[in-house]
């Protein structure tokens, strides 16, 4: 007759026994023992976390963790008999990676691809390097655009400081601000859309 028990009991009472418990269980089961003891499970040698514990350890909200499960960034966890999610230490490690990758500016799709490579047994370093190179090129272009905008704003600011303030209101046929209109007419190629 097989032994009975639950993963929850095993986790709560027998965590400290780890591999010793698994070996003892196998021996008892082989002897036809008729005592009710909890079945060993993966959790005995690897502590499992509830979603709240995982959220606290990683600084990622429960809602975000569930979202990551839905979109495939995080693998669905095991469930206890009462339906609670039970996360392995691997989930904590992955969520920490997600957080670090997001801080580098990677999208969830990019992060998902890196984690898929890791799950497949490949080191995702080459893929990460290519992603970071693309992000650096994009960032360099944005910096160039921002520097051009800054130069344009500084030029208009200097022109406004040098201009004499108009005492009378502009007439309808005149531009609202002559300095801005003059600067725009002088450099139409610097206008950008969106």
Secondary structure: number of strands: 2
The SSE string, one letter per element, is HHHHHEEHHHH
User: Largest beta sheet: what is the strand line-up?
Assistant: 1-2
How far the N terminus sits from the C terminus, by CA atoms, comes to: 72 Å
Helix content: 55-70%
Low-confidence runs (pLDDT<50, min 5 residues)? Answer: 1-29, 33-45
| Shape estimate | elongated
Q: Count of helices? A: 9
Describe it for me?
There is one protein chain. The chain has 194 residues and is mainly alpha-helical. The chain has a domain at 1-47. It is built from nine helices and two strands. The chain has helices spanning 7-14, 18-30, 42-45, 51-58, 62-71, 89-103, 108-119, 125-162, 178-186, and strands at residues 78-79, 85-86. The longest helix is centred in the last third of the chain and has 38 residues, at 125-162.
């Amino acid at each position: 007759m097989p032994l009975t028990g639950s993963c929850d009991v095993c986790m709560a009472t027998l965590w400290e026994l780890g591999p010793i418990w698994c070996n003892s269980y196998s021996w008892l089961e082989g002897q036809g023992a008729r005592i009710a003891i909890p079945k060993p499970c993966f959790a005995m040698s690897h502590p499992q976390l509830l979603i709240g514990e995982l959220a606290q350890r990683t600084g990622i909200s429960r809602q975000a963790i569930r979202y990551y499960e839905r979109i495939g960034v995080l693998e669905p966890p095991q469930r206890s008999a009462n339906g609670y999610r039970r996360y392995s230490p691997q989930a904590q490690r992955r969520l920490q990676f997600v957080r670090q990758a997001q801080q580098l500016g990677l999208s969830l799709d990019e992060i998902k691809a890196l984690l898929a490579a890791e799950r497949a047994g490949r080191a995702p370093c080459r893929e990460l390097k290519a992603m970071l190179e693309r992000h650096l090129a994009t960032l360099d272009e944005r910096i160039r655009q921002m520097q051009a905008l800054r130069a344009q704003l500084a030029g208009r600011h200097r022109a406004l400081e040098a201009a004499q303030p108009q005492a009378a209101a502009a007439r309808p046929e005149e531009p609202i601000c002559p300095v801005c209109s003059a600067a725009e007419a002088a450099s139409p190629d610097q206008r950008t859309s969106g």
